[in-house]
Amino acid sequence: MKEEELLKKRLLELSQKAYTQNIYTYTHFLNEYEQSIYKEVQKDLTFVDSHLEGGHEYFTRAIVIFGSEEMFGYKGEIPLVCVRISPVFDKFAELLTHRDYLGALMHLGIERHQIGDILVDKKTAYVFCFEHIAEVLEKELVKVRHTQVQVTKILSEEVKFTQKFQKKEGFVSSMRLDSVISLAFGLSRKNSALLLKGQKVFVNGKLLIGGDHKVETGDAVSVRGYGKFLVGTLGKQSKKGRQFVVLEILC
Fold first, then answer.
1. Phi-psi domain of 41 (left: phi exceeds 0; alpha: psi -120 through 50; beta: other)
2. Domains, the chain, ranges and CATH?
3. 59-105 pLDDT per residue, tens
4. pTM
5. Contact between 55 and 80 (Cβ < 8 Å)
6. Alpha helices, DSSP H, located in 108-188
């Protein structure tokens, strides 16, 4: 609770600074729970424009930017950049995981809130981070596990990562959140309810603890420890009133 209150206080301070000094301000990278807190207090920060920026469409971690061109009359630079980590010798490179890359970054003394998402595509990884962190990585990151790597700062349009989805379809008793989660990850309704009570479920970035929330086509549902999925098309109902639904699970 103390950390939650500190974050709310920090969000208010940054919003007031942006408003009174006519400058852009921004947070560190927020996880999904912290983003949910931001969305909760956003209604009290209407005196300043603000939005989340993660660097790509399906971000999990993001910064909050306070300010806009409409508000200030000038366009501010987004302090978020992307670096590409690739093997020096592709032939001898290992197939590294998200955990491998994160471990290598932590080993350099970089704190988790200083970097955003790490997208892994075969033998290449894309890391979203602050400009000064990118400079550290370009100079100091030379190896991930046993693989020698090179780090290059790139433009967002140079990110070659394409989000992959695994389609899962089936019938649910209703479009209740707990029922749809059960279908997505093959869980019992009881276990889905425990995840909700444990504050591990987010719908469109908002923390939800009630399984009776009705999800709709286009909603993005994230379950900490399991993954993220999009609610796709709805089919016809069965004779018993069960709803056919197609889910797209992020791989």
1. alpha
2. 2-72 (3.30.1370), 80-158 (3.30.70.330), 165-250 (3.10.290.10)
3. 999 999 999 999 999 998 888 999 999 999 999 899 999 999 999 99
4. 0.86
5. yes
6. 131-140, 177-185
